[in-house]
Design goal:
Helix content is 35%, strand content 18%. It contains twelve helices and 21 strands. Bound molecules: glycine and manganese (II) ion (2 copies).
């Protein structure tokens, strides 16, 4: 797609400081890892289809016995050619000498601006130097093309190998949710539930794919709650949104359950509305439907359910039309899922919702949130927040729920909670 006149340039992510001289755990840039499978920092992939000596050039850290004794082994350019399938690999320290020479033979640079600002500045510097040098027969590129446009469309359709990684990330997330449910009981702190997830993820060599959300009682209604510091009380609901990452592929899973193993009638009533919305959205997740069809199905079920419970007034149609349901269901029913939790890929083509196609992976995650003190709402409903989230692949026949082995049925959930406590 880049073509012989173009050069694609893809840097990996920089290391990031957490505090003083301590780094965050390193995570490569998703686009870079998608193309290379290479997880070391300080690397650049160059894709130059017109380059006579080979079209895939990798820059990576040189071998350095002293640094490696402290920080661990590096692949080095020589082994990188062999192990990663690059046509040529050079030390990253030589990039200023080598990369401008590759760029000057190209008419177009395919590059994603604005993701790694320090690299943007270096690239602009190389291009400016070519322009200013002005020697005959040498020129700066005529065109800059957004690389993410084509790359992210590729990433939207998962290959069989990618789905294998995602199944693995999903199955460990399922095991972790089960483990947390089994351990759950009144008196624990939210962070103790979080610890069950971290244990299960690390036990399989995985990391969380985002900060786990472990919200009990009133915290179930805070969508991005991550303090995870409250003590679980008898009678609380617990909402846990936690997933893990395997080979840079994410899972993203939510379950909501009663801390003491028994839903109250009010909690169960709300739970069942969310479950109906989830089922309706899943039914609408199939090839040929639009991206928005699962959301519309979930909105319909939530509007119907909240009306039935007396939480919203009017007809189902008027609740949907006016958007009054948004007071209690304020997010969308899902998002693309892949190397990034909120994965890349366009949701619309022009002004039309995208058609669902086999190989696309998305979450299905309707929810209802009724915060404490919600005005005009009876006390019995207040402080109830419920979300049910699963990871779903669109298949030729319909869909495959990667997280299907984790119970959603309220009676099954009740049986799992506290089983090992
Ligand atoms: N955990 C983020 C989300 O559910 O979208
Ligand atoms: Mn999600
Ligand atoms: Mn989630």
């Amino acid at each position: 797609m880049i073509g012989r006149g173009g050069v694609g340039i893809v840097p990996t992510a920089p290391t990031r400081l957490r505090s003083r001289d301590v780094d965050h755990p390193y995570r490569p840039d998703s686009d870079f890892f998608y193309l290379t499978g290479f997880a070391e920092p300080e690397a650049i992939a160059v894709l130059a289809p017109g380059r006579a000596q080979g079209e895939y050039v990798l820059f990576c850290r040189d071998r350095d016995s002293q640094r490696e004794a402290w920080d661990g082994a590096r692949i080095g350019p020589d082994a990188a050619v062999e192990a990663l399938g690059a046509d040529d690999a050079f030390p990253i320290g030589d990039v200023d000498e080598i990369l401008p020479g590759i760029i000057e033979s190209a008419e177009r640079i395919h590059y994603t601006m604005g993701v790694h600002p320090e690299f943007d500045a270096r690239l602009i510097g190389w291009v400016a130097a070519l322009r200013n040098r002005g020697s005959p027969g040498r020129h700066a590129p005529y065109e800059f093309v957004a690389l993410d446009h084509m790359l992210h469309d590729m990433r939207l359709y998962k290959t069989r190998a990618e789905l294998t990684s995602m199944r693995r990330a999903a199955s460990v997330a399922v095991a972790a949710h089960r483990r947390a449910m089994a351990a759950c009981r009144p008196g624990l702190y939210e962070y103790e539930i979080e610890a069950e997830f971290l244990h299960e993820f690390r036990r399989h060599g995985m990391q969380p794919s985002y900060l786990p959300i472990v919200g009990s009682g009133p915290n179930t209604c805070t969508l991005h709650y991550t303090a995870n510091s409250r003590q679980l009380e008898d009678g609380d609901l617990l909402l846990v949104d936690a997933g893990c990452e395997h080979e840079c592929y994410a899972s993203d899973v939510t379950r909501t359950y009663p801390v003491n193993g028994r839903f109250t009638p009010a909690q169960r009533a709300i739970y069942e509305v969310v479950l109906e919305a989830h089922a309706a959205a899943l039914r609408a997740t199939r090839p040929g439907n639009h991206w928005n069809d699962p959301h519309d199905a979930a909105v319909g079920a939530i509007a119907r359910g909240l009306r039935r419970l007396g939480l919203l007034e009017g007809t189902t149609a008027s609740i949907v039309r006016s958007g009054s349901y948004r007071r209690f269901f304020m997010h969308r029913t899902g998002h693309w899922l892949g190397m990034d939790v909120h994965d890349v890929g366009d949701y619309k083509v022009g002004d039309q919702w995208r058609l669902l196609e086999s190989g696309m992976v998305m979450t299905v995650e309707p929810g209802i949130y009724i915060p404490p003190g919600a005005s005009g709402v009876r006390a019995r409903w207040q402080g109830i927040g419920v979300r049910i989230e699963d990871d779903v692949v669109v298949t030729r026949a319909g869909n495959e729920v990667l997280t299907r082995d984790l119970a959603r049925d309220p009676a099954q959930i009740e049986a799992l909670v506290g089983a090992s406590a």
